[in-house]
Amino acid sequence: MTTNTSPPRLLVLGGGTAGTMVANKVHKVLPDWDVTLVDRDDVHDYQPGYLFMPFGMNTPAQVRRSKRQFIDPATRIVTGEVDRVDADGRRVVLEDGTVLDYDYLVIASGTTPRPDQTPGMLGEEWHRSVNEFYTFEGSLALRDNLVAFEGGRLVVHITELPFKCPVAPLEFTFLADDWLRQHGLRERTELVFVTPLDGAFTKPVASRELGHALEERDVTVETDFMVESVDQEARVLRSYDEREVPYDLLVTVPLNMGADFVERSGLGDELNYVTVDKHTCQYLPQGDRHPHPEIFALGDAANLPTSKAGSVAHFSVEVFIDNLVELAHGRPMTHSFDGHANCFVESGHGKALLLDFNYETEPLTGTFPVPGVGPLRLLKESRFNHLSKLAFRHIYWNALLPGRPLGLKPQMSMAGKHPEGPPAAVSASMREE
Amino acid sequence: MPTTTISGRTLEVNEEGFLVHPEDWTEDLGVELARLIGIEMTEAHWEPIRFLRTDHAAMGETPTLRRVSTQTGIDVKTLFGLFPKKPAKKMAYVAGLPKPKGCV
């Protein structure tokens, strides 16, 4: 516990997008606080770049930096693996035995692809004919495997939801279509999109628009496909309902899970995401677990019912910081996160779409951020959207991580958007055989 | 919101036919909802459906397929056998609950 003379101690687990932003912003608004950040390494990747590396649109050097260079030097940085959070004792134990006490804890340990969780996914062919683009190594290997690809069945596959950046597999498909055309391989390639969802995307209007985009590009879509195993020898995906999808080159999105220490600490759900209040990101105990109002989870580590995406980390961190200042002054939290996510969707041919949505409102068509003007167009392809997405890497390194204001409000706005009526009845979708 | 009549009761449903008010649900209604999608309820079907009802009441949301499987110990393959093709959606429908979110 703190005494009257020592400043409050904030401990941040994880130095990715959310953790770095928290550390930097806390120093600006609560300069006397004692901030410690724990991470296992000093590598900070611009993860949206993983999508571009396979197509040579970003170089490895453009996406990789040192973590420390972005973290306010007033932060104490500890390198180590977290063993567990002792929530009752308000301390974190590292695997090397180091004990770190805290007054407030922020868990920002993200989400990780877990190919080990699907039988047959890992093995001899991992990062050869079975690929992923959610790690630096996987994205690089995929770049080389695409260069060696001579046509056949290129299958883009999603294992299960939720996963990081839910539009990325669609973007990969669009970019692959474009890349294959440029390399004279599109005629010789069957491009297949395999998803556990019943459409291209989760939200109806976006699913319709993106579904059209797949159709236009002659992409075969296999829906409601829950993978049971990968057979690397036969080169097929098998589903629980005994369908088979053959591939020559598989690009899968493995099951995503939160950090194992979250499970060991008894703070997580069945996928090791910290259970939180969706408006404050404050720990919300499940079942008979004890409340710990001093624990928060931000970014992908939390079980927020919205996209696991950098924009969500960014907007929710801003709300958290405003609330933390109130807590620091002994007042109740009054700021509420609305689930706002804002995602560019690369569609190939030098264009991109923009999605903007929150817990209550699905992505709609319209203009952003200035109503009726844009310059960005929502849910429609444009060159400007694509250039903005490419430019965002610089904004990320130079403004977002250091905690400089971007001029975007965390709350979603309806201005400039075109709401639609209720979607057409699709009840038949469940009864079909 | 559209309504539908099942077993003489008028019920509010969404565009996909899911009950709007989980509190409208009874086990008898569950049997009828199952029949509408071609499922004859057996004790094996009831085990996950009862879990869905309890878990929704405790957590405020419909559990995902993974959660149903890890919490009840019924493997995913078995759930696919009981509620063919779309077990998560079909179980939620029979249990009178909204589709599981997991979908964002």
End-to-end Cα distance of chain A:
61 Å
Unreliable spans of chain A are: 422-429
The level of helicity of chain A is 10-25%
Mean pLDDT of chain B: 91
Strand order of the largest sheet of chain B: 1-2
Overall number of structural domains of chain B: 1
Beta-strand content estimate of chain A: 25-35%
Describe the structure.
The complex is a heterodimer of chains A (433) and B (104). Chain A contains 10 helices and 25 strands. Chain A is an alpha/beta fold. Chain A has 3 domains: 9-51 and 65-113 and 258-328, 3-Layer(bba) Sandwich (FAD/NAD(P)-binding domain); 115-256, 3-Layer(bba) Sandwich (FAD/NAD(P)-binding domain), CATH 3.50.50.60; 341-418, no CATH class. In chain A, 46% of the residues are buried. Residues 422-429 of chain A have low confidence and may be disordered. Chain B has 104 residues and is mainly α. Chain B has one domain. Chain B has 5 helices and 2 strands. Chain B has helices at residues 27-36, 43-59, 65-72, 76-82, 87-94, and strands at 3-6, 9-12. A two-stranded antiparallel sheet of chain B has the order 1-2. The relative contact order of chain B is 0.18. The mean pLDDT of chain B is 91. The interface between A and B is medium-sized, with 30 and 28 residues.
